[in-house]
Every structure is written in C-alpha cells, then in structure tokens.
Amino acid sequence: MLKFLAGLLMYSFIFPKAYVVVIPRGINWIKHNFYDEIPADVKWAKGYQKFLLGLLFFIEVFIQSSWSAWVAYRILEFSMKAEAQRWLYFLLGAICGEAALGYIARKEEDVNLWVALRSIIPMGLLVQFVINPKFLDSLFGWLVRISFR
Questions:
Q1: Which alpha helices (DSSP H) does 35-132 contain, by range?
Q2: What pLDDT, on a 0 to 100 scale, did the predictor assign at position 51?
C-alpha cells in the first residue's frame, strides 16, 4: 500500500504542475503564431482556425485522459495484487487522480463550455476506466507497454 500511495502522490504533484507550466504555454504559442485575425477575402481561414482549435482541444483531452488511464492502470495493478482492502486502492487512487485533474481545471484562465469539457471528459474517464478495464485496454493499451515494463 505504501509503494502505491507514495508513487501515486508523487506523480499527482508532478503531473499537474508540469502540465500547467508546459501545455498552456505551448497552446498559447500556437494560437499566437497560427491563429490570427481573419482577413475578409480569405474564405478558408475560418475553417483552418476551427480545425486548429479542435485539434488543440483533442490534444489536451488526450493528454489528460492519458493521465486518467495511467492512474487507472496503477489502481488495477495494485488492487489485483492485494489480498484485502481492495476498495482502499480504488478510493485513494481516485482521490489522487481526480485531485490532479482538478488542479489543472482550477488553473484555467477563462472558463467556457470547451474548457469545462476538457476537464470533465478525463475526470469521467478515470472512473470509467476502473469500472471497465476492457475499455481502458482498447483505448490506452499502448500505455501499459510503455510505462509498465
């Protein structure tokens, strides 16, 4: 239990801090350099901007969902080895995972529907991944091969 909790707490502090420092800066740089005012005579620019915003949204949701998948894998890995009190692994893992995602959500500057969805989707996926491990394996099976060797 101590190994599980120590590792999860450590990464629950590192991931959100690193995410808040790196990802929003990168997104702002992309928006600053590739998302300008649209000239009236350029018809394709509006579609390009919508595509760019959709791609950035997908990337952020994917990164946060990868965190949810990693936490779910840790929960499942340690709880399957436990002989008693499996529920404690689920509870502590969910608290650590959701707290990290909550920290990221609280650091958002302007809140709108897309920002809320960017936070809600990974938070819901964490619970869904723990409840349905087959769904987790179908979406993030590659994560096990990378991080759990």
A1: 44-81, 86-106, 113-131
A2: 86
